[in-house]
Amino acid sequence: MMMARKQDVRIPTYNISVVGLSGTEKEKGQCGIGKSCLCNRFVRPSADEFHLDHTSVLSTSDFGGRVVNNDHFLYWGEVGRSLEDCVECKMHVVEQTEFIDDQTFQPHRSTTLQPYIKRAAATKLASAEKLMYFCTDQLGLEQDFEQKQMPDGKLLIDGFLLGIDVSRGMNRNFDDQLKFVSNLYNQLAKTKKPIVVVLTKCDEGVERYIRDAHTFALSKKNLQVVETSARSNVNVDLAFSTLVQLIDKSRGKTKIIPYFEALKQQSQQIATAKDKYEWLVSRIVKNHNENWLSVSRKMQASPEYQDYVYLEGTQKAKKLFLQHIHRLKHEHIERRRKLYLAALPLAFEALIPNLDEIDHLSCIKAKKLLETKPEFLKWFVVLEETPWDATSHIDNMENERIPFDLMDTVPAEQLYEAHLEKLRNERKRAEMRRAFKENLETSPFITPGKPWEEARSFIMNEDFYQWLEESVYMDIYGKHQKQIIDKAKEEFQELLLEYSELFYELELDAKPSKEKMGVIQDVLGEEQRFKALQKLQAERDALILKHIHFVYHPTKETCPSCPACVDAKIEHLVSSRFIRPSDRNQKNSLSDPNIDRINLVILGKDGLARELANEIRALCTNDDKYVIDGKMYELSLRPIEGNVRLPVNSFQTPTFQPHGCLCLYNSKESLSYVVESIEKSRESTLGRRDNHLAHLPLTLILVNKRGDTSGETLHSLIQQGQQVASKLQCVFLDPASAGIGYGRNINEKQISQVLKGLLDSKRNLNLVSSTASIKDLADVDLRIVMCLMCGDPFSADDILFPVLQSQTCKSSHCGSNNSVLLELPIGLHKKRIELSILSYHSSFSIRKSRLVHGYIVFYSAKRKASLAMLRAFLCEVQDIIPIQLVALTDGAIDVLDNDLSREQLTEGEEIAQEIDGRFTSIPCSQPQHKLEIFHPFFKDVVDKKNIIEATHMYDNAAEACSTTEEVFNSPRAGSPLCNSNLQDSEEDIETPSYSMFREDTPLPSLSKDHSKLSMELEGNDGLSFIMSNFESKLNNKVPPPVKPKPPVHFEITKGDLSYLDQGHRDGQRKSVSSSTWLPPDGFDPSDYAEPMDAVVKPRNEEENIYSVPHDSTQGKIITIRNINKAQSNGSGNGSDSEMDTSSLERGRKVSIVSKPVLYRTRCSRLGRFASYRTSFSVGSDDELGPIRKKEEDQASQGYKGDSAVIPYETDEDPRRRNILRSLRRNTKKPKPKPRPSITKATWESNYFGVPLTTVVTPEKPIPVFIERCIEYIEATGLSTEGIYRVSGNKSEMESLQRQFDQDHNLDLAEKDFTVNTVAGAMKSFFSELPDPLVPYNMQIDLVEAHKINDREQKLHALKEVLKKFPKENHEVFKYVISHLNKVSHNNKVNLMTSENLSICFWPTLMRPDFSTMDALTATRTYQTIIELFIQQCPFFFHNRPISEPPGAAPSSPSALASTVPFLTSTPVTSQPSPPQSPPPTPQSPMQPLLPSQLQAEHTL
Question: At what angle do helices 537-552 and 470-498 cross, to 10 degrees?
Fold first, then answer.
């Protein structure tokens, strides 16, 4: 029922009549009161449907049309509205007006002839088929508009809206209007219908009119008044709704809003709609070329567009769109303008960069100048239409050139002025920079390395600060510093070369001693070039060490002139002169030019050789190729297991030239086989011209036996292998003791190391094999060496042009790239001359090892270093070898204006005179000299040829038969060859820690110390007969092959020979017993990571006699006697028995010739620094091992007995003795002391050598240096083999500590220090502490706790002692032990077990006093304590349970063997013999390590 009732409810409909002043112009004025506009806005509120012009003057036809329908009222149609109470209603709106005839201007005649007041008050309106009115344009065109008829042709009016125009109407009096309205109201009031007064045109209203209208309304029974504006659409709906509520009494009273308040609300609504519409336009329209039609279509459905068009109309919407388009276009033009203006300065810089050209030109003149430039059109475009922003050029985005008419604008003129100012400022700044640079160059205060902070006050002034930033000056200063530093370094390097004699006299090696470095400082200290690097001590030290490295290890790479080394130039010149494509295909088995092939002999009995060969082949590719450093090499293996004298087992065959040999053993028998085979192989080549096997690199390898459980211990095999390797001067490799058994292969890394060493040895084979013997002279008559100085200001091409372009010049058959053959007529015969052209540093290495008949030495007359190197070279040349000095000058001698050149020429002439040599000078302006200038020299060489060859043979034979222990540790005679691969220091090779091969390995002459080897191997029956066989074979006087000779580090005086038995002169060789083991009172395990250099023993000096053929055609013999016994010049001092000599002399004419001396003894200008040579002749550059006071006392008492050995302390030179003492390690508690420096007398450190408490704090209990070192090692070095065992380079360790002392934030990774250097520096920190990290009073408690037998009780007792440590010591000790525990966990890679680490670290951490026997007997206890701390680190420091003990007991022989540093895979070197056997001590830690025979002697 309710639903039905709701559906029956009809929407109420109200008929409203709008009335007001109407009539002719005379009555209403020129315009109406706005009744039509009011009706229009209410019925059709949209702005587009609102019309302001509604005329009442109509034609007769329009008046009679269906819209007007001959009535004086208009039907506006039906409108639906929702009132305030949300009830919808319908309203029919009728406007009562009066239409005027456009002809008579009088009211049209209608069916109703009543006056307007009467008609307007009508409540019943009827007009058949009357159409709804829209606008004036509808009249006469009714068909174009919607045709809607007035319902039923009649309406009953329910109420009236009485309009009053409150605007200032034209030709209208407001009072007259009010009078008309009053009459009209009176008429309306009669109808009893509701009336609402509507004030129209309030947007133009007059305040008085509005007041009068309100007064009128109040006077008429409080009529409701609504202030409206149809144009602004204000309160129009309110007027109609107010009337409806008066008609329908049931509706509430409407709240009438004043006009201005309503206007404000309407304005806000319009502003909101406008904002939304503008946002919509900006979102849709991005291009200024868009049009309204297309955009309006896009916006048609948008509510923002609809709302605004409803309120303001389409025209206003279009207007806003056009404004947006204009704004977009303006922004586009401005962007283009900015781009053009930004490019304009670049165009100025490109076209008119010269200030002198435009300095006084105006912008107009500059514009004309621009047009003349060739690149004008590249930067500008000239448009036909201007200005450019009004043409289509604004849309030409591809053309980025600047419109030329832009130059006429003000911004362009400003940019031109700015360009001028910029050029002027740049000129001024350039002047300031130039003045600043000149100030730097002329200021005496600016020295290399001076910081900017110190230099600023000397060179800055106000002008500099005004024109440039300080950062600019700092940059200039930094570049200037780099220049002067580089120049100072070059000059300092030249200074070092000028003192070449000093460096070669000091016999420096890879680790120069502090004393020798001090000598270098003393000699160079007063030189200005030395002082110039005063503020760059680290760089200066590095240059000195680098130069020492060059002296000790001279190669093309280490040459200071690299890459312009003379050797490289010569090789290029010779190879380009002689090498042809056909030559590349020729193969010479002796020189072996095939560098991509490696021939390897594997020697080992009982299947060892074959098994290793198979394992190596397994690592190769299918075609026997092996990859080394990314390059493929063909690997040819020759396993030998039988008698090497048989051809089938020969080391060398016509098709196989060995490059190296691996010697394998796993028992005494297999070691005996190796020794015997090597002896037989070398013996077979003693008298041959082909002595390649004498220099064959050897590697002795101990491998584990498979399935053999015999009583031979690993320890004894290692001992015997080391002894044999020491005598054979070869590398000893012990993978078996490192856990890499033969059954599990020798690892690939070690094989690669061996093969790399073979490659390096093979590359140097040509130079080694070129060491000629007498029989080599069958191919050449003379061997001449031409020496050139690297870095001389003359071209090697010009100097060698006459030689290389000579018709008689041919390629040397030896395969060397620095030798040529010449055939020159000398005297009556032609001679074949092999001319080797080398740098001086290459010549040093062959000066005493190679047969050379003469030297042609070049030097630059205007370079001191050139002559200095010549002097250093001549010092060690024998005085029988002819010398040709050649001075290279800038011009003729008589026109030289350089004092230095004249002095150098004079000195060269004087040297030549004093040594009876030849001298000539060659102007390098005319380098095309002829070989004829050397003919007198060649004649001298021919004259002395025989005596030179005889002397050379004597020297090498004497050396081969001498009893001197050969030690290779000098850069002088016998130093590594030019291309030697010997490492400069131990850290250069991480695994293994030894040099793989030595190209200068001499022929092992076991007879030199055969009794020593026999004694050491006496306990091995299988080896003793081999040693005696060695002795008997090498006692025969067969001229040995030539080899590089070892240096002698000290002068031998007659007093040194007092201990020798006279039986030596009778040919009876007395054995000199010695031991490779240090005595207990001299044993210092703290040197475990610092191998002690071998110290040579003085050899017997006797009257050496050797007879050689003088001339094969005349049957003469020359006998050379060593008359000058006290003279030691580095040559061999071997001897023959008088019996042999006399047998050679019988039946032949004998001529006696004195043994030659060196040129240094004949020329006063040579050997300037010879005194330093004798001062440092004892010992090595490395620190010597522990030599205690007791040993010194024994040495001072003298030595007696045939088997005694004179130690190196018997030298009576007090200065020498002081040097030796200074090299010893002080075992007493060290005191803080200044640190040594290379270039500075002392280095005061505030960090190293100070008490531990001064470098730690409660917040940082670990010293920063230790923390940095351990972090670096754990990050990069845990896998490094031999970490903490292999020592680092001492100079680098000192450099690391010095740099850290200066900067505690030092980044070790950036400095690129090696792991061994960092590890060594860390150990050095603890060594330099005033007190050891483990306090002395705690050491006693630790030893007592260690005596407890029960293992668990012992560990707990040690832990209790640990708690008593001082807090600082405990924290650091915990940190270090935890680190060592982590290192030991990687022992399979680094080979450092906790036992090995304890051997390395216990002397550093505990530092006992080795001068007492108690300390010596407790060494094993100390080591075991530290080992326990490392093993049980979690228990001691982290409260973890006790871990299980390792498999092998600490006291087992295998474990004991690993505690001895000599049993690791390090180079085997001869140890100095103990001066006296120590007293028997049951607790001596060394006795278990000695062979049985040595133990017996040890306890005698």
Answer: 30
Q: What is the 3-state secondary structure (H, E, C) of 1424-1454?
A: HHHHHHHHCHHHHHHCCCCCCCCCCCCCCHH
Query: Does residue 1285 contact residue 1392 with C-beta atoms inside 8 Å?
Result: yes
pLDDT at 985: 38
Does pLDDT of 478 surpass 60?
yes
Structure tokens at 1394: 């906790």
Q: In whole angstroms, what separates CA 314 from the centre of its chain?
A: 71
Alpha carbons 1010 and 1065: distance in angstroms, whole number: 18
At 1327, which helix (H) or strand (E)?
helix 1315-1327
Please tell me the distance from the alpha carbon of residue 662 to that of residue 699, in angstroms, as a whole number: 5
**Position 666, amino acid:** N
* Tally: H helices and E strands in the chain: 55, 28
Angle separating helix axes 236-247 and 35-43, nearest 10 degrees:
90
Distance between alpha carbon 810 and the CA centroid of its chain, in Å? 47
CB distance 696 to 729 below 8 Å: no
The pLDDT of residue 513 is 84
pLDDT band (50, 70, 90) for residue 307: very high
Give the bridge partners for 73, in sequence order. Answer: 96
pLDDT digits (tens, 9 = 90+) for 235-290: 999 999 999 988 887 776 778 889 999 999 999 999 999 999 999 999 999 999 99
| Alpha helix stretches (DSSP H) within 127-206 | 174-189
Question: What DSSP line would sit under 826-839, residue for residue?
Answer: ETTEEEEEEEEEEE
| Residue listed under structure tokens 């002698």 | 1048
Question: Which DSSP string corresponds to 360-419?
Answer: T--HHHHHHHHHTSTTHHHHEE--SSSSGGGSGGGG-TT--SEEGGGGGSHHHHHHHHHH
Q: Are 20 and 95 in contact, with CB atoms under 8 Å apart?
A: no
Query: What residues contact residue 988 under an 8 Å CB cut-off, 6+ apart?
Result: none
Helix/strand/coil for 76? strand
Tens of pLDDT, residue by residue over 725-765, are 877 778 887 665 444 444 444 667 777 777 777 776 665 55
Residue 895 contacts by C-beta under 8 Å, 6 or more apart in sequence?
none
E strand or H helix that includes residue 660: strand 660-665
Residue 415 and residue 407 in contact, taking contact as beta carbons nearer than 8 Å: no
CB atoms within 10 A of CB 708: 9
For residues 1265 and 1369, the answer to whether their CB atoms sit within 8 Å is: no
What does DSSP say about strands 100-101 and 57-58: parallel, antiparallel, or unpaired?
A: parallel
Element (H, E) at 58: strand 57-58
Residue 322 and residue 281: Cα distance in Å, rounded?
A: 10
Give the three-state DSSP class for 121: coil
Residue 1037 CB burial class (10 angstroms; 0-12, 13-18, ≥19): middle
In Å, what is the CA distance from 1396 to each residue of 571, 822, 1426?
A: 48, 60, 11
At 1351, list the tokens. Answer: 């293992």
DSSP state of 525: T
- Rounded distance between C-alpha atoms, residue 989 and residue 987, angstroms: 5
Residue 813: other Cβ atoms inside 10 A? 14
Euclidean distance between CA atoms 397 and 388, whole angstroms: 13
pTM above 0.70, yes or no: no
Residue 645, classed as helix, strand or coil, is: coil
Taking alpha carbons only, the member of 141, 161, 65 closest to residue 108 is: 65
State the Cα–Cα distance between residues 95 and 655, nearest whole angstrom: 134
In angstroms, the CA 159 to CA 146 distance is 27
Q: Bin 872: left if φ > 0, else alpha if -120 < ψ < 50, else beta.
A: alpha
Kindly report, residue by residue over 355-409, the tens digit of the pLDDT: 999 988 899 999 999 999 999 999 999 998 888 988 888 888 888 899 999 999 9
Q: What's CA 827's distance to the chain center, in Å? A: 63
Question: At 229, is the pLDDT very low, low, confident or very high (cuts 50, 70, 90)?
Answer: very high
Which of 759, 764, 769 shows the shortest CA–CA distance to 597?
759
